[in-house]
Amino acid sequence: MSSGPSLSPVPRLGVGMKLRFDAVRNASVILGPERLFQLDDHALEVLKLVDGSRTVADIAMILAAKFDAPAELIEADVLPMLQDLAARGAVRL
After folding, report:
1. Backbone φ/ψ region at 81: left (φ over 0), alpha (ψ -120 to 50), beta
2. Which of 24, 25, 44, 57 is 20 to 30 Å from the Cα of 4, by its Cα?
3. Residues 71, 80, 6, 37: what is their CA dihedral angle, to the nearest 10 degrees?
4. Bridge partners of residue 28, in order along the sequence
């Protein structure tokens, strides 16, 4: 994890949003008031690590270790995905 102050955003789920498995869709989703975001496997891996305390850089480092990939490349993919979800109210950065 980060050893000092970071400029990396700390994502958290948006107000009223919950990460759930939807048995009807047989898929993981972010569920909120009158909203539903169906997640692919990559988004689910990221969102399972969104806890309101880990930075985007922390999440990228964890995923880099798990998938044996460069953290910089993972962060370059993760940040735009989280920014898109933030623009739609599913997460906060």
Report:
1. alpha
2. 44
3. -100
4. 21
Cα–Cα distance, 25 to 37 (Å, whole number): 11
**pLDDT averaged over every residue in the chain:** 93
Sheet with 27-32: strands ordered across:
18-22, 27-32, 35-38
Sign of CA dihedral 35, 17, 64, 10: positive
Range 10-18 average pLDDT: 96
Q: Looking at the predicted structure, is the pLDDT value of residue 6 above 70? A: no
Q: Taking the model in full, what pTM does it have?
A: 0.88
| Cα 79 to Cα 67: distance, rounded to the nearest angstrom | 17
**φ, ψ of residue 86 in degrees (nearest 5):** -65, -40
| pLDDT at residue 4 is higher than 70 | no
